[in-house]
Fold this protein.
Amino acid sequence: MSRTRRYLALGDSYTIGEGIAPEDRWPVQLADALRDGGLAIDAPEVVATTGWTTDELDAGIDAASPRGPYDLVSLLIGVNDQYRGRDVALYGPAFSALLERAIGFAGGDVSRVFAVAIPDWGVTPFGAHSGRDPDAIARELDAYNASAAAICAARGVAFVDIAPVSRARGGEADMLADDGLHPSARLHTQWMQLALPVARRVLSRA
């Protein structure tokens, strides 16, 4: 009988699913879709909190003390670093350190880890009324995502780019939670569908 796989999801509000039901979070949807495809996997263990920056996630991991090894580990972090005005030059090393922790939770196997791009909150109603320049937000997040993607490429870690669909559709009413900032279950589904081929490939190989 096949072993049930374990999945650890690390992040912030975009992983915890601020404003939506727990079953609608993209990591939970991802595990459900993998199960529907015949892969035995537990519900994800989630270490994420709305508002967390890279350093706060690092401290949150220490507090949660997840016990690996996991068969699948995802990492989505950085929007709050950008929101608080931290330079991309600081984000790169912080993201790299968290990626190394994620790889450690995967038993040192980089093929079991994937990172997810930061969506563009500037396209949302919250962004439009924030007093911030949406073009500047987009440029900064593009730089953050380029840094994360380059770090992942150097380590051989898959990078799931949800930024284009988030930018194209993230301002639509049915893609938003009630707060006008965080994504609805429908946008989480879009993200899940982009992550699914990567996760399926990882677990099928395992």
In short: Residues 134-155 form the longest helix (22 residues).
